[in-house]
Design brief:
mainly alpha; 131 residues; rod-shaped; 4 helices
């Protein structure tokens, strides 16, 4: 398929191309800002909820593990009961911390739509240069 010939002078064509390119860059920057702002707000909300959960959870877990240690005290010696209760608490805390870290990975917070749009723009620009 052949492209129609443009009769405008080269300087006007270059000026038009630069104007379109700068408009594209401004649009992409605005998209990136918008997406990153949304991701940052989502991360902040998640962190606040985690902090609230930690405050309440710590108190609850202390009471629960004190009860577990008391219950185990009837079955095994007191020192071992407290040690076992503490090890169970440590395993649960480690699992929760690991899970939280996995949700905060950089690839989860990356501006995926902006990256995809930039890749499409680059492909379109290459196509325009070829024709």
């Amino acid at each position: 398929m052949t492209m129609p010939q443009d009769s405008r002078p080269l300087s006007e064509l270059l000026s038009d191309a630069l104007n379109q390119f700068s408009a594209l860059i401004r649009t992409e920057i605005q998209l990136a800002r918008t997406e990153l702002t949304g991701k940052a707000a989502k991360a902040a909300t998640g962190l606040a909820m985690m902090a609230g959960g930690l405050v309440v959870g710590i108190a609850a877990m202390v009471l629960i593990f004190m009860a577990v240690a008391e219950w185990l005290d009837d079955v095994i010696p007191e020192g071992f009961a407290r040690l076992l209760s503490g090890l169970i608490a440590a395993a649960i805390a480690g699992g929760l911390a690991w899970s939280g870290l996995q949700r905060m990975r950089a690839d989860e917070l990356a501006p995926k739509r902006t990256i995809e749009q930039l890749q499409r723009d680059a492909a379109a620009a290459k196509e325009q240069v070829k024709s």
